[in-house]
Amino acid sequence: MTVAVDIWTDINCPFCYLGKRRFELALAEFAHRDEITVVHRSFELDPTIPAGTSGTVEEHIAHRYGIPVEQAQANERGIAAQAAEIDLPYQAGGRDYGNSFDMHRLLHLAAAHGKQDVMLDGLYAGNFADPTPVFGDRERLVAIAVSAGLDESEVRSTLDDPEAYADDVRRDEQQARELGVTGVPFFVFGGKYAVSGAQPTETFARALQLAWEERPVTIVGDQDAAACGPDGCAVPSPS
Amino acid sequence: MTVAVDIWTDINCPFCYLGKRRFELALAEFAHRDEITVVHRSFELDPTIPAGTSGTVEEHIAHRYGIPVEQAQANERGIAAQAAEIDLPYQAGGRDYGNSFDMHRLLHLAAAHGKQDVMLDGLYAGNFADPTPVFGDRERLVAIAVSAGLDESEVRSTLDDPEAYADDVRRDEQQARELGVTGVPFFVFGGKYAVSGAQPTETFARALQLAWEERPVTIVGDQDAAACGPDGCAVPSPS
């Protein structure tokens, strides 16, 4: 049976980037990995940032949380060191920040074409592994989406229509609120087992196993409804 | 949270065609329908039919199960009447039968592009709603796949390589055996609640509700792992 894994995430969130990789390391070792479906869900860390705004993330963080810029820079270097432990490229210093609503809308467009995961990888790589700013640069966003396999004209028309896939983003965020999610990444395995934050790979492995073991199945309804088998199609007699 | 619904199915199976529609009627009324992911799984009713074979289904059924052709024809008319009750077009008489392995391979190709559901609808319509035979006609199969939005050259190269997506078909069938599935359609909701056969719409509605209620979530792992929230990215102190 397919087990769905929901992952709430934001492009601005370095631990989402790291958490995705650690989850994938667990998934790669999981015996039933072909039965796992991953759905990325939208969560904006700061929806109040005006669209088109961009800037160096360390200064933004220092200003917003009232810490010295040096401390924000040290935090970035600390995250880069954690990323290096799992062979994840991370540019410590210089990445920008911004409003991620349009990116989340494109992730829902990508989902409709079965390309959500590769699109998210492209956005993360654009933000964390590449020194070129990714926020507030529409053409960069289009290029990332096209690299992920999306149709360029569909990407442009989605960006041109601010309501395209906007309800999908809002629904994800509403559900996160209902779940009490206050930070990301946030993972839910099989609708039942939650993992909060960029936990160690072993934690993801445990959650995969727990969700997988949530069996055997319970039969709902009649056992003799109309069905086809090796002996033909049995039509039950009318009751 | 996303609830996955796995549906084992065969193109040769009229009750799979009807069951899909009844399930969809239940889904359309389900309050959390946007949180449901459907995965179609492969099940060949008769994998021993040589590829390329085709013929009128009533004669095949009559011969195989030792019943008069007239009875097989009456069965088809009975299924057509059930289809009419849910506004599903059904050609009673004249549809063909055949080996569905290549169709299942193409359904897995379609899944990789997020087009599995529309591809399955195209195959069902081709087999049950259209008098033109669909088995043993490669160009018809290509046309259905292209109408579903697949890339023609990818469809042709998949058909040319008999091992392309073949393991995916076999894995689905192996899992059906492990579940004890002997007939299709067979539905599993949230990995836990099974519905066998083309049951009434209300049964599907009940299974959706049962799978959805399989909450709340259980937290796995630390509560204070590295995460980003509205107050910044918290890096837990090393333990």
Automatic annotation (TrEMBL), chains A, B:
The record's SUPFAM superfamilies line, in alphabetical order, gives: Thioredoxin-like (SSF52833)
Q: In this protein, which residues make up the domain named DSBA-like thioredoxin?
A: 5-209
Q: GO molecular function: any one?
A: oxidoreductase activity
List the InterPro entries.
Answer: DSBA-like_thioredoxin_dom, Thioredoxin-like_sf
* Coiled-coil blocks: none
Please give the name of this protein.
DsbA family oxidoreductase
Q: Can you name the source organism? A: Gordonia aquimaris
